[in-house]
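Suppose you are handed a protein chain with no further information: no name, no annotation, nothing but its sequence. What can you learn? This example shows the usual starting point.
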Amino acid sequence: MYDKIEKGLIDRVGVGVFISIFISLLGTVLFQNYVMQYVSQFLGLFVALSIIIIGMLIVWNLKVELEKNES
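A reasonable first move is to predict its three-dimensional structure. Written in structure tokens, the prediction is:
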């Protein structure tokens, strides 16, 4: 029982750290002067990261559903 709780907390902390780092880097980049020169590259990076995050969420939900089916 404690293993499941610990695993759940580690997963949540990992996702929280990833999201906080992403938001801080996004905020840092948005307020730089050179962003206006490289808007297309920034938007491409943002779209790519968004696709990766959506993919991670889909895989996460599939993992949860598969774990439910096993037990």
